[in-house]
Structures are given as C-alpha cells and as structure tokens.
Amino acid sequence: xxxxxxxxxxxxxxxxxxxxxxxxxxxxxxxxxxxxxxxxxxxxxxxxxxxxxxxxxxxxxxxxxxxxxxxxxxxxxxxxxxxxxxxxxxxxxxxxxxxxxxxxxxxxxxxxxxxxxxxxxxxxxxxxxxxxxxxxxxxxxxxxxxxxxxxxxxxxxxxxxxxxxxxxxxxxxxxxxxxxxxxxxxxxxxxxxxxxxxxxxxxxxxxxxxxxxxxxxxxxxxxxxxxxxxxxxxxxxxxxxxxxxxxxxxxxxxxxxxxxxxxxxxxxxxxxxxxxxxxxxxxxxxxxxxxxxxxxxxxxxxxxxxxxxxxxxxxxxxxxxxxxxxxxxxxxxxxxxxxxxxxxxxxxxxxxxxxxxxxxxxxxxxxxxxxxxxxxxxxxxxxxxxxxxxxxxxxxxxxxxxxxxxxxxxxxxxxxxxxxxxxxxxxxxxxxxxxxxxxxxxxxxxxxxxxxxxxxxx
Length: 458
Fold this sequence. Notes:
By secondary structure, the chain is mainly beta. It is 5% helix and 44% strand.
C-alpha cells in the first residue's frame, strides 16, 4: 500500500510540475512576507502590494476583515490593511535574545496566527529549562559543571491589541502549528513527543488551557517524523499537512467525518483505529528541500504553500467522493514570497497606500516629530534606568514580570540627552530580569516606544 502511494506521489509531482494553468481570480487575498516586509497579493498574483517598508517583519497572518498580526523581533504587531500600526506588544514568552550556556529561558513568540474575528492571536513557544544533573558526580557546582536540559513547546494565546498574561487563557503544551478553525477553536499539530497523535483540537476560552482538548487524527504512514502545519478547509471537507523530519512531503487529506464527532484514535492500537482522514494527494521534492506555510483559500478550492523560490498555489481536486483526480494546476505565483496566509478580504486599491497629504499647510512654528530613536540602558544606581531621548518631553517607564507590573517611573526632561529614571517598585514585588516598556512623548510631536529586557537589582 505504501509503495503504491509513493509511486502515486512521484507521478503526481511530475504531472503538477508540468502544468501552468492560471489560478482563478477572486475577491480575496494572500498576506505574506518578502524581504522583511509585509505584502498583499491577489490570489492569481496579478497585483502584489507592499504594505510595510521597514524590513523588520518575519511572519504575518490576517483576520477575515483584513486586520493583520505580524512578528517583529519578540513583539506582535497588529496592522491595518494599509500598514498602520494598531498595537505593538510583547508576550509572556518574550524573554530576550537567546543566551549561551545553561540558561533557563523561553523562546518565542513564533508564527503568530490571528483569529478570524481579529480579537486573539495564537503563537508558538519553546521553553528550555536546565537543572543540575541527578548523578552525584554531576551538578551545577561540579568541575566542570553539568546540567540536564528539559525542553517543552506549545502555543500561547493573547488578545490582539495588548499583552496578555498566561493565566488569561492558560497554557497549551505539546503541539504547535496553530490554526484557527473558528473564533474559539484551535487546531494544533507537530507534536514534540514521538508516538503521539498528529493533531489535536482545543476549545479556547478564559483559563481553559488544555482542559478541553480533543485528539483528532494520527497518520499511520508518518513514521518519518510526524505531520505538522495541519490546516482544514472552512467547509471541513479537506485537510493538508507537511510530513517528515525535513518537511519534504506535502499531503492533502480527504476528511471522512466531522473532526469534533470523529472517534479518537489510539497510538497503542493502530490496527484498530477507525479512519477519520484519508491521505489522497502527495507532493515531494520541493524547491529548496522543504515545504512550509500552508494556507487554504477561503472556498477550499486552492492551497498555497511556501518553498525555496516563493509561494506556489495548487488546485485542490474534488476528492470528497474518494481519492483519484490529480490537481489541474500547480504553479509559482509569488516569487520570493514566504509564509502565505489566505483570507477573504480583498487587496485595497493602490490609492490607499499613497502618502496622505495634510489638509492644511504645516505650521512652521509646530515642532517636528523627532526622527531619532530611543536608547535604553541600565542605570548605575540601584533600580534606575538610563533613557536617551532626541528632544524635550516626558518619559514613562513600566517594568513587568510576566503580566504583572512591578515598577514604574516617569520624568519630564527639558532637552535631548541621556536621563536617569528612578523606578518605584510595587509592594512585595521582586525585580531581577524584567521587561521594560519605555514611552517618550516629545513636546508637540508623536510618541515613541521601545520594549527592552533588562536585569535590575531587586
């Protein structure tokens, strides 16, 4: 059976690679990242519009109304359809740059996925925790020192317009690859433990975490590394995922029953598992060696994916009655693009991206917004920070550990320069490593903000 499937895969790839039928145009769009910026494209690639121009973006997703969530460093940035920054905030796993040595630390957020209604964002995280070895000859004080590493992964949930503490939605562990099936239902895949089901479905709500989680399917021929980045069409008829340690196989599945009512599968009795999905279409030998960034069209008739030379789109054949037909089209649509996210909102007209002209002439006496950026550093004295500003104005510094505010300081400065801000620490709060949000409001100008991680004396 497996040999027959692999033969079908090779034949399918040869057929698909030879076709160049244009994808149908529709009033929807693909958001993606190219050269560090967010772009939007029509589904046939005929109009590609650059949305941002700072070169600092690494991922983007879009809600049904076109609002986007993008990743900038360790911050999630909510964007309007034309690139206006609506919110910019860290998450509870934004733990600063990775440190060398046995340092317990969160890494993330990665791959922020905004919900269909635009109110929430799901993101991936990884946690590395080092402990002293259990062996009597191995501990943090031995020479040389040695440690044991425990690594975990999962998905976090935040409101799309502000930082949200871990206690708000709870912790979702084990599986990554978040995909919103609805405004409150999240599909996850890419398990971190071998011999586990490939996909789970979580009900998302206040404090739920993994309390309401259903195991969906385990692909029995995924022995080469499991299935990740699984998505399902909005009508629930088809699903797709990427298999293998090297992410070298893309599969399209026929969904045999509603995921929420389908019987759960067991990894301990694979022979007795009822079929809930059937792998029908296989792609192999991707450009660059691996597949990524799956995203179904809103109508489920096409699938976008990311390979080394850009974003390709393949037709999804009608396999609802059983496996059989091959895709009629498979082609490179957006050269150089990555991380596609297909949504029902259209690409705004080019005029929407033109620079806005002021309604009245600029008052020559009106101060101009400083273009220099803020600089933040730890102060020499205990519980102080140094902030360098480009002009006179007011500085506000807020320190947080997780979602809790532990310290705050403000200062009005009369000129540009480096200023020392003393922080007032909340009662019973502990400092140490904190996340600082520094806001500077220049006189007559536009506010600037910077988020940094520092270690302050407690």
